[in-house]
Amino acid sequence: MKTKLLMLAAVMSLTGCEAYNMVQAGRIAADYNILAGQGAAVFNSQNGSQYLIPKPYNEEHPRMLVCYTNGGLFGSKDEAPLRDVGNEYLEINRPGFHLGEGVERSGTWDSRTCYDFEIQPNV
């Protein structure tokens, strides 16, 4: 009996996480075009690495999603490189702006580490 209860609790826990991630992915998909294919979102940084920066549906969207191209257990989780790459992207594509506060959105797009940053004007 205890084994059945433990198995049921484990299954419920796992499906709860999956449902939560699906809701989070839906929120990101509502703002960013993550379904167009990864090639459309690839940004080649001056540091020699590639990152994913999907286009927002609304060009005036006040946020930017920046993700590592690798995911899973061995992918990086650091925010700073993503912020640097996002600022590099803005220098090229939207001069006069920089990234502000970021919110982690990891695991919502193919198990990648992503941060959703505010875009702010330079002062």
Structure characterization notes:
The protein has 123 residues and is α+β, with helices and mostly antiparallel strands. The chain has one domain (2-121). Helices cover 36% and strands 27% of the residues. It contains two helices and five strands; from the N terminus they run αβββαββ. The chain has helices at residues 2-31, 80-93, and strands at 42-44, 50-52, 63-71, 97-104, 112-121. A five-stranded antiparallel beta sheet has the order 1-2-3-5-4, with helices on one face. It is globular and about 40 Å long. Mean pLDDT is 78; it is low at 4-20.
How many beta-strand segments? 5
The main pleated sheet reads as:
5 strands, antiparallel
- What is the assembly state of the chains in this entry? single chain
Task: Give the low-confidence spans.
Answer: 4-20
Based on secondary structure, the structural category is alpha+beta
Number of helices: 2
Radius of gyration: 17 Å
Portion of residues in beta strands equals 25-35%
Give, in order, the helices and strands. Answer: HEEEHEE
